[in-house]
Amino acid sequence: MSRQYETVIGLEVHVELATKTKIFCSCSTQFGGAPNTHTCPVCTGMPGSLPVLNKQVVEYAVAVGLATNCKITQNCKFDRKNYFYPDNPQNYQISQLYYPICRNGEIEIETEAGKKTVGIHEIHMEEDAGKLIHDEWEDCSLVDFNRSGVPLIEIVSEPDMRSSEEVIAYLDKLRLIIQYLGASDCKLQEGSMRADVNLSIREVGQKEFGTRTEMKNLNSFKAIKRAIEGERERQIDLLEEGKKVIQETRRWDDNKECSYAMRSKEDAQDYRYFPEPDLVPIVISDEWLNEIKEKQPELRAEKIARYKKEYDIPDYDIDIITGSKKLADIFEATIAICKKPKKVSNWLMVETMRLLKDHNMEAQDISFSPHNLAKLIELTEAGTINSSVAKEVFEVIFKEDIDPDQYVEEKGLKSVNDEGALRTTIEEIVAANPQSVEDYRNGKQKAIGFLVGQTMKAMQGKADPGMINKILKELL
Fold this sequence. Notes:
- The chain is an alpha+beta fold.
- It contains 15 helices and 16 strands.
- It folds into three domains: about 5-285, no CATH class; about 300-410, no CATH class; about 420-475, Orthogonal Bundle (Arc Repressor Mutant, subunit A), CATH 1.10.10.410.
- The N and C termini lie far apart (about 80 Å).
- The model has no long low-confidence stretch (mean pLDDT about 90).
- It comes from Lachnotalea glycerini.
């Protein structure tokens, strides 16, 4: 009988915070930029330069801690983690080992088997390293220090997850919380959210954990899922062959769908941690903590409850809209202008979702303003433009955020609401299509659709289909 195995997974999630400047200096944190242009003596580790802590980093870390039910360490400090690596200019990293800012938290995730709580061991603040760019043509590596000193929080979970599905649910929940707080955009593809996966396996029923490996270089949910499944199989094969799993750090290659060993796992003593001598301890007073608590925004669960109470829209729509901070913001801002929740929800759920899919975009990449969406809804409601013109105009708003009033005026897209002119055109169409008229009178309902289509064509799509139908039925 073959043995049954259980996977045990814990995550270390690094999140780049959305501050305008770095953690210990005033250099820009903006993504992109020519190599080594967002740098200064502090973030390139020049002798004699001294770090100064960015207050906003502490506030974001506390906000994330509160939202993940952590206990906040009101007296905490930084430690120096010593290691030599080419993209680490000081030859040490300022981090937190002994007194992390947040501890003992948890979040609830939805799994196929129902709700599950995943523990958060700690959240600590640290600085990011630079980035090595490997040039295969020249066979050399170049260093870009733009990212060096960008503020990070590292969220360390307990080993509570048992499958790739649970891991994705946990990351999704974490990402939403952090986006709602405005603490980071959490774009995996830009590296502002990165996850290292600690994974071990054990026989079902066994109490002790197996030997774990850590996998790095995971920059999408798909890669994380594949890496977990690949590593699980690799460890089971080793055990089945009577071999041992070695504790090591492995790098996942998503193109080859396999991982390879990078280095055997270090322990804390290898890093020779000691208290950071250039920074004073951080004291978070009760007043400061309360100030941060009062600024906490409405998170997704509260938003869902409020939408159900305030807006008459389906639960499915509420789920999708609140599933993105950007969509929820657009939804609320548009309602504030046009007071039509159902219509706003329809435009977001149907046309916006379609265009996001067509352009391979995420909701957070939306660039149109609630103001212009509200104007478009008002134009349609007033009958100034018909629904097919409205869809056309919305495509332009989606791409270029144009003013719909101006656009409709310039392109001459207003509906012809002059009943006299419309009646004349319809009479001509009826006269020119005796066969369709006869079919309709013989009970073929579809024939009227053809006549409506012909009228719309003659009016260049600028008539109200409802009015055409009404006049046609009177004439027939």
